[in-house]
Amino acid sequence: MEDTSFDIIVIGAGPGGYVAAIRAAQLGFKTACVEKEDLLGGTCLRVGCIPSKALLEASEKYHETKSSLARFGVKVGEVTLDLPAMLQHKDGVVKANTKGIEGLFKKAKITRVLGHARLAEGGKVSVESTGNPPVTLSAKHIIIATGSKVAMLPDVKVDGKAVGTSNDAIAYTEVPKHLVVIGAGAIGLELGSVWCRLGAKVTVLEYLNRILPGMDMEISTQAQLSLAKQGLEFKLGTRVKSARADGNGAIVECDGMDPIRCDKVLVAVGRVPNTENLGLESVGIKTDGRGRIPVDEKYATTAPGIYAIGDVIPGVMLAHKAEEEGIACVEILAGKHGHVNYNAIPNVVYTHPEIASVGKSEEELKNDGIAYKKGSFPFLANGRARALAQTEGKVKVLADAHTDRILGVHIVGARAGDLIAEAVVAMEFGASSEDIARTSHAHPTLAEALKEAALGVDGRSIHI
Known about the structure:
This protein is α/β, with parallel strands linked by helices. It has helices spanning 15-26, 42-47, 49-67, 83-108, 166-169, 186-197, 217-229, 319-333, 362-368, 383-388, 416-428, 433-437, 448-457, and strands at residues 5-11, 31-35, 111-114, 116-120, 124-129, 132-144, 148-150, 163-164, 178-182, 201-206, 233-236, 240-246, 249-254, 260-262, 264-267, 271-273, 306-308, 347-349, 354-359, 372-378, 394-400, 406-413.
């Protein structure tokens, strides 16, 4: 490289990193982004959010064609699965998205540097790549956005074949006869749903006595009932002792149970920050007990000129949270008022039905001693949901008992991931349940369920 001096260097090109780099360039900063993978986009675009959603959509279409179209008067002949074509669709979606980011980098004149970055004193970053001599870059500001990786369990022997992670489960070349999923969080439920729809027996093992820890209990309970009806088998309150390849498949051992023999094991017990081998110690940055980098309200670390965002700092590990932090961080560096409202970060699980939430759950409000009122409305009473033949689930609105300000919205049902956006905007603007209740919603739409739930906070839903 001829020019190695920049205003901002972003380490990592995942959602947080590439968005931070683009916003920095927009604000006039001379920007470089260091990424060790050939493709831009990080875990999310390469092997996470995007490919899993492509498979979820494709598997849902397959399942609907095979079992649900007759009710709409659509008759089809024998339905067969072309798994290679489905995987090709997934790969095409990934390629289009990663190529899109390459185009955005070129448009914004961002210098893309391929290799593994390590911090050094004096605002320097050393970049090493296979077959090339190390390159040293320098910048006034350095942003760490290296994301996260799959968490592991002791005595679970991942080989990438019989026992693997989500990286492997988005690329099975044949449908497992029996898939065991360790962990009932979003990743496990989404990929478990994919392979269940395609014909696998799916057993979900979860250490806790519930699925989707952290989400509203009423909503997650209803989601579990829906997923169980689709064929997912849940074994909750189960501690996995070990998992390993065994012959042509795998064997999973749990406390108080006979060993489970299966074809594939998916380890989906959460994620941990990618903060190793970054040279943090060389600049005096210490991580906490969970490997995260402490930052202040401006995303500054303890090292001058070095900042961190996304999965490497405390908070939920969500791509859109990282994006907002990346934008806020560089806007603060530009002298603007960057800010993230952490009470209005939505969370979506893309199963069928979808599950979405924003704000506080009932359990959190009770634990915090906050008085609240609740309104809920079932999709069964929504005309659009009936037309779609997707009447499972409900919308729940939680509002402050004294001020009526919305404290949380939780949805399980059709297109919940899209419906939650209205609730996020409402909370961002400090809206009350009355504000949503008095806002005209087009009829017939699924969004009317949110209006009706808001009306229900005051006991005046119309259609129940």
